Amino acid sequence: MQSVEEQVFAEVDEFIGGTIVREDEALRGSVEAAEAAGMPAIQVSAPQGKLLQLLVRLVGAKRILEFGTLGGYSAILMARVLPPDGRLISLEARAEYAEVARRSIERAGVGDRVEVRVGPALEALPVLEEEGVGSFDLVFIDADKVNTPNYFAWALDRTRPGGLIIADNVVRKGTLADASDPDEATQAQRCLHETLAGDSRVSATTIQTVGAKSYDGFLIALVEHA
Ligand code: SAH
Ligand code: DHB
Ligand code: MG
Question: What is the DSSP letter of 191?
């Protein structure tokens, strides 16, 4: 059951979705395909997705790395605003999710720009390294939350100055502020914030969010010039 407040949050997202943030057929199709395949509906909300698109455009990103593909919703959004020679690599642990995502990505017309790699992200990273993947302009971290600090540390060494690292789901219904919360995923986000506080390589903020996706928030970090 949604609380009255949560209903209002969802209604406002719907209003935004009916005005300045419109989903098209392919995007809705990716959500429907994910649902039909039994995936949880935990993709970013439409307004959050639009923010990702604006950020991709603002940094002029050409190379994007995503942790956590699910049904391809955020990958499609970001890939759509890449230039034709832009590339997005998305890492997904579950082969069956990756397969559904690839089909939706193809249907959305961005199959030539997106590569979905299957396997735990921590195992995919050394492979990317060996291939000499180079540096990224934007990294979106949205996979298993306990590993967000590990993904962030890897991304920080491989994001160009002026690039962005964005981590979803860091506020976790407000438990971010609770030092004694027993959830390891929450402790990981606290640890990430505490680490970044002392790291002059990034300038970061965390924005709390409400909406159709309940109460959470994302961290945005700008990689500073040396
Ligand atoms: N970014 C997507 C939502 C991702 S949900 C969107 O907004 O559309 C989180 C995803 O991370 C799930 O699909 C889950 O299977 C995947 N995941 C979980 N653990 C992972 C891991 N260790 N490596 C890679 N992906 C993982
Ligand atoms: C979960 C994962 C997400 O990326 C998200 O945005 C919301 C929930 C989850 O694993 O429950
Ligand atoms: Mg998320």
Answer: H
**Phi-psi category of residue 30: left, alpha or beta, with phi > 0 → left and psi -120 to 50 → alpha:** alpha
Contact call for residues 79 and 113 (beta carbons, < 8 A): yes
- Kind plus residue range of the DSSP H or E element containing 62: none
Of 45, 98, 100, 95, the C-alpha closest to 74 is 45
Q: Is 92 in the pocket of ligand 2 (CB under 6 A)?
A: no
Q: Coil, strand or helix: which one is 47?
A: helix
Measured from the CA of 143, which atom of ligand 2 is nearest?
4
89-132 pLDDT, tens digit each: 999 999 999 999 999 999 999 999 999 999 999 999 999 999 99
Please choose, from the candidates 65, 175, 186, the residue with its C-alpha nearest in 3D space to the C-alpha of residue 116. 65
| Whether pTM exceeds 0.85 | yes
43: helix, strand or coil? coil
